Amino acid sequence: MVGAARRHARVTLVLAVAMATIAGFSIGQLWRGEARAQGTAPFGFSDVVFLSHVVAEDIPIFPGDPHPRVKTLFTVEEDGFRLNLMRIGEHSSTHWGAPCHFNAGELCADELEAEDFFHPAVVIDVRAATKADVDFRLTVADVQAFEAEHGEIPDGAVVIMWTGFQERWDRPKAFQNFGPDGLMHYPGFSGAVTKWLIAERNIGGLGIDTLGVDPGTDERYRANTLLLAEHRIHLECLTGLEQMPPTGGWVVVGGTQNEGGSGSPATVFGLVP
């Protein structure tokens, strides 16, 4: 019953945006004629932005994951069309994770619903805290302080930590940030705040601009293990978060639904109000 209620809540949120769109203008008109020429954003929002990195062979990866490889098989000059062969892990570059990524018996990529990839976005700017402490862990008190300023986190939201690590993307070693202890050092969600956000705010997912929603030193992956159940997802290696407001935006998540997949590299779109 709980899972069904959460799914119903997500459908309601999506329908609310759709109704707002219908009230203002038709979606079809957005991308035709004068509206498209003027760069009008879809769904009644003011702008659409990319929140995902471009995939390349030299991007930072989680240790042990395969490096992406791209091979050109056909070219326009020789074959009349261009086609590349791509090899990439499900959790490389900007990506989403399905519940079965960390929990046996939970939903895999091909079992999720369309509404699981469409969420209100809450962006918590913790750059000052992570500059002072690279191992910073978001707490319940941090979230409550955010809500005191910006209002309560909406039902079904993806809560995103903007840590500033997106600026390290072009420096893979700095992005991974291994310390003398052999562990990666980057910020993330504490287990306690993850549990609270699920129970008290009925979130649809967590997001972050690092390699993982768990802090780099957490080898138990408590945030992921708690989060990835029912229809919740994570978004990792995000970028472009400076383009999003703290509240009021939405995220739309692309990728592939691999059979039995644990997630997928993704193009993530931010809808700006």
In short:
Helices cover 27% and strands 21% of the residues. The protein is built from nine helices and 13 strands.
Descriptive overview:
With 273 residues, the chain is an alpha/beta fold. Residues 18-37 have low confidence and may be disordered. Strand 9, helix 9 (222-227) and strand 10 form a beta-alpha-beta unit. The chain has one domain: 3-Layer(bba) Sandwich (Glucose Oxidase, domain 1). It is 27% helix and 21% strand. It contains nine helices and 13 strands. The chain has a nine-stranded mixed sheet with strand order 1-13-11-5-7-9-10-4-12. It has a two-stranded antiparallel ribbon with strand order 2-3.
End-to-end distance: 33 Å
Continuous helix count: 9
The CATH topology turns out to be: Glucose Oxidase, domain 1
Superfamily (CATH H level) name: Putative cyclase
What general outline do the C-alpha atoms trace?
globular
Instruction: Tell me the fraction of residues in β-strands, as a range.
Output: 15-25%
CATH architecture level-2 label:
3-Layer(bba) Sandwich
Characteristic key phrases:
21% strand; 27% helix; 273 residues; nine-stranded mixed beta sheet; single chain; two-stranded antiparallel sheet; alpha/beta; Glucose Oxidase, domain 1; 9 helices
Write the layout of secondary structure elements.
Layout: H1 2-24, H2 27-30, H3 33-37, E1 47-50, E2 69-74, H4 76-79, E3 83-87, E4 95-97, E5 118-125, H5 127-132, E6 137-138, H6 140-150, E7 158-162, H7 172-176, E8 188-189, H8 191-201, E9 205-208, H9 222-227, E10 233-236, E11 249-253, E12 263-265, E13 268-272
Parallel strand pairs: 5-7, 6-8, 7-9, 9-10
Antiparallel strand pairs: 1-13, 2-3, 4-10, 4-12, 5-11, 11-13
